[in-house]
Write a structure and sequence with these properties.
- By secondary structure, this protein is an alpha/beta fold.
- 38% of the residues are buried.
- Helix 6 crosses helix 7 and helix 12 packs antiparallel against helix 13.
- The strands form five sheets. A four-stranded parallel beta sheet has the order 4-3-9-10, sandwiched between helices.
- Helix content is 47%, strand content 14%.
- The chain binds adenosine monophosphate and zinc ion (ZN).
- Adenosine monophosphate binds next to helix 1 and strand 9.
């Protein structure tokens, strides 16, 4: 499998530390608002990377944080007159709802910055002890950027260029730094802000330290993949490398993956310009599976333009797969015989070629655009080769392949079977008989079974009535 590594600027053969096991850290959102569709891109892209690795039989330890202490969260809390944890907890819950709707699997662990302060104090102390950091008079702790000789290796920036010409790249707004390139590890509290005790001052962490600490705690000193949007390459990921490698004396992450940006109508997403959508906004107009399909129809490293026309095209594409699966399910009910004919055997072999094509695309730095094309080819193949005369084995094999490949992309293309009225009535009848026979365990089991399907039972004088929730 080849992965483009931002560190080396080329595609490299992917070899996890431990064969069959992958440790992966994906920088998560700052939770002060509903997530926007740009935030959804890394979630969908890296969830697909994880799903494909799991399909290969690898065990993926996937960690993604919530930044729950930050200026924007504090500002919102002050506006609403509540504690900042009220804001962050609210938007963590909302974010999880969006992730579920996008069919993004929950991470193995979703750590929160405010729960990891002890680890941050420890790493900052280590950096101070090793001479990579210093404390300013007001208690701010800074990382001494120049002391880390490899600074700039991820973003391919030269320290002197940073210092000289391009001032916009400097971390600004700090006034007690020894060098403008230095960045904050810990800073003193301001009035009304959440704070923690520390050896340096009552205060809170800088943004970058949390990921170094959480990654170390949950995945170890050396991890396989670190990922996020390309805006994080500098300074966030560069600073994470400096902190982690200086503190641990180990290579932090071996592969750095970054998704390209999502723009709207070819412009940067911006609230003030009115081209800004939350995932919720899109969910009002479309099934969010369409948004997921849209994101995967481009290569993850390319910039992606969001527009109404492109979403319509994505809707058509996604529906083409759903319709094909639904037709195959219909034909499956009609199909005769479990043994495929000789022609069918041949066609099943041919269909495997599309699965191989899909895999080859994914193995080539997760080229989901080509992988989705392979699904389309398979759909077309199934649509032309399956008829009402096909054997059950043949229809089933093709359907399962389409569903399996879609599932690797996290696309739900088969709606859960709806329980039929006749099945509900048969179960209600069975429950009545179980009750008569005093088999209450079975009676309860049936009630629960129906309730899982959203069927509500009502015992009335005229007998049992039911309705769908
Ligand atoms: P933030 O909450 O701003 O830290 O962002 C959370 C994640 O979303 C990071 O990985 C960002 O790189 C990513 N992200 C933010 N905006 C966009 C965008 N417009 N396109 C793609 N990724 C984005
Ligand atoms: Zn991070």
């Amino acid at each position: 499998m080849k992965i483009y590594n931002t560190l080396s600027k080329r595609k490299e053969e992917f070899e996890p530390h431990e064969p069959g096991k992958v440790s992966m850290y994906v920088c998560g959102p700052t939770v002060y608002n509903l997530i926007h569709i740009g935030n959804a891109r890394p979630m969908i892209v890296f969830d697909t990377v994880r799903r494909y690795m799991e399909y290969k039989g690898w065990q993926v330890n996937y960690v993604s944080n919530f930044t729950d202490v930050d200026d924007k969260i504090i500002k919102k809390a002050q506006e609403e007159g509540v504690d900042s944890s009220v804001i962050s907890e609210r938007y963590i819950e909302e974010c999880k709802k969006d992730m579920k709707a996008l069919n993004v699997m929950p991470a193995t662990i979703h750590p929160k910055a405010t729960q990891e302060i002890d680890g941050m104090l420890e790493m900052i102390s280590t950096l101070l002890k090793k001479g990579y950091a210093y404390t300013a008079e007001d208690g701010t702790v800074y990382f001494k950027t120049r002391s880390f000789k490899e600074y700039g290796k991820l973003s391919h920036k030269n320290l002197d260029d940073l210092r000289g010409g391009n001032r916009s790249l400097l971390v600004s707004g700090e006034d007690q730094k020894e060098d403008p390139l230095d960045f904050v590890l810990w800073k003193p509290k301001k009035e009304g802000e959440p704070y923690w005790e520390s050896p340096w001052c009552e205060g809170r962490p800088g943004w970058h330290i949390e990921c170094s600490v959480m990654s170390k705690k949950y995945l170890g000193d050396e991890i396989d993949i670190h990922a996020g949007g390309e805006d994080l390459i500098f300074p966030h990921h560069e600073n994470e490398i400096a902190q982690s490698e200086a503190a641990n004396d180990k290579t932090f992450a071996r592969y750095w993956m970054h998704n390209g940006f999502l723009n709207i109508d070819n412009k940067k997403m911006s609230k003030s310009a009115g081209n800004f959508f939350t995932v919720r906004d899109i969910g009002e107009k479309y099934d969010l599976q369409v948004l997921r399909f849209f994101m995967l129809s481009a290569h993850y490293r390319s910039p992606l333009n969001f527009s109404a026309e492109l979403m319509e095209a994505a809707k058509n594409g996604y529906e083409r797969i759903v319709t094909s699966v639904s037709n195959l399910n219909y034909l499956l009910e009609k199909a005769q015989g479990d043994v495929p004919g000789a022609e069918e055997e041949k066609a099943m072999e041919e269909a495997k070629g599309f699965v191989q094509k899909f895999e080859a695309a994914m193995e080539d730095d997760f080229n989901t655009a080509d992988a989705v094309s392979a699904i389309f080819e398979l759909v077309k193949f199934a649509n032309t080769n399956v008829t009402e005369q096909s054997s059950r084995a043949f229809v089933k094999a093709l359907k399962e392949e389409i569903v399996m490949l879609s599932d690797i992309c996290g696309l739900i293309v088969e709606k859960a079977d709806e329980i039929l009225d006749s099945e509900i009535e048969a179960l209600i009848q069975e429950r009545q008989e179980a009750r008569k026979a005093k088999n209450f365990a079975r009676a309860d089991e049936i009630r629960n079974l129906l309730s899982e399907q959203g069927i509500i039972l009502e015992d009335t004088r005229e007998g049992v009535k039911w309705k769908r929730a």
